[in-house]
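Holo prediction — 6-O-phosphono-beta-D-glucopyranose.
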Amino acid sequence: MDKATFRCDALVVFGVTGDLAHKMILPALYALCQDGRLTVPVVGVALEDWTKAQLIERARDAVDSHDTGVHATTMQRLEGLLSYVSGDYAQDSTFTKLATALKGCKHPLFYLAIPPSMFETVAQGLEAAGIAKGARLMVEKPFGRDMKSAAALGAVLRTSFAESEIYRIDHYLGKEAVQNLLYFRFANSFLEPLWSRDHIESVQITMAEDFGIKGRGRFYDSVGCLRDVVENHLLNALLLLGIEPPASQAPQDLTDAKVHLLKMIRPLTKANLVRGQFDGYQNEPGVKPGSTVETLVALRLHIDNWRWEGVPFYIRAGKELPVHVTEIVVKFRKPPVATFDATPKDGHNYVRFRVTPGLEIGIGARRKQPGEAMVGEPVELTAVEDTSTDMSPYERLIGDALAGRPGLFTRQDAVELAWKIFDPVLDLPDAPEPYKTGSWGPKALDTFAPPGGWINPTA
Ligand code: BG6
């Protein structure tokens, strides 16, 4: 059978008692059951000495806190699929029990929703128990901490699984709005003649979150903003804006297009980066005293190719900002001559993609104000405005992994090339600039800004 396309006949979730499973994975499994896309046994694995009844209780709680209007029959269907194996990942006996639970299954999907430090132990345990063969492995970010550790992690996973069997999740790629970046770009011919240095002045990607680190101090203080959301989620959004048309819809062709672009993004230097830390971060539980970890970054990337030479790509991301919105603005150059209004500040056309919350695509234009004078005002043409709750990223990605659709997962060469861009500025010893919670970041951002300034999204 073609390794890339077989349908999995069981799902094993390592770390099923954890936070991610409660918030994202269990509700996604319920949604998959509702759509009839999950019909195979689901085995939860974790250290806790739980019974199947306790796992079912946890699943009910997870679904209840996520969805309103839970359907009893769907819940029963999910419960009927669940079983639980408790054990230490370092013990062979855990994998022997798992092998028994998987008896008769030929193509399980192993989902590692556990700290990366355990990936190697689990991959080896699966192999030693003889259940890695014919299976697929799904892993959660972070894929390493830098290029070297990412390469080492990739090598470890590939001792037990082939690259085509490893599905690396970046949940951003499962978002409807992020998929639309790719679709909107390559399904509309009107954009292509404009989509280059000839007409585009700059690109701004802003991920603003109006909350802090939500009790994840220990985790967050070991990663910081660059590693948490920029190197993965926001870089992926940038790639979809910047790539050349993929040769086909085939997953490998899309990845090849991304890899091609990644090779042309200049590694970041300190001069192209501002780091901030919100006031009070140091008092968060789990944060080391005197921590120099950033909770905000603003950075400027350059792409050395014919399409993008000279167009700055700005990324700004931070916690404790005034709104919870992720938005991308692709700003066109002004008309070369101001035939009407004398160079108004808002005279640029733009395309605005809202990624969170909901999905919006707007095209910024100018129109004449009613009246005698030839004076204009900005308007926005709405191409897409969709606030309905669609398929969650986890539902889409787990569904794809079960079905063997690798298009939304990250390949090892892309992982390493992404780190190569950020490696020079990881773990800088200097203290980040402080900023007030609820503000748009440190003062330094006033001078480190895209041409025309930052465009702050509104809620
Ligand atoms: C996660 C980060 O990967 O992405 C979080 O660890 C961040 O810090 C989250 O808040 C943002 O994703 P979303 O889908 O909630 O916008």
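READOUT: The pocket of 6-O-phosphono-beta-D-glucopyranose is lined by residues 209, 228-229, 356 (CB under 6 Å).
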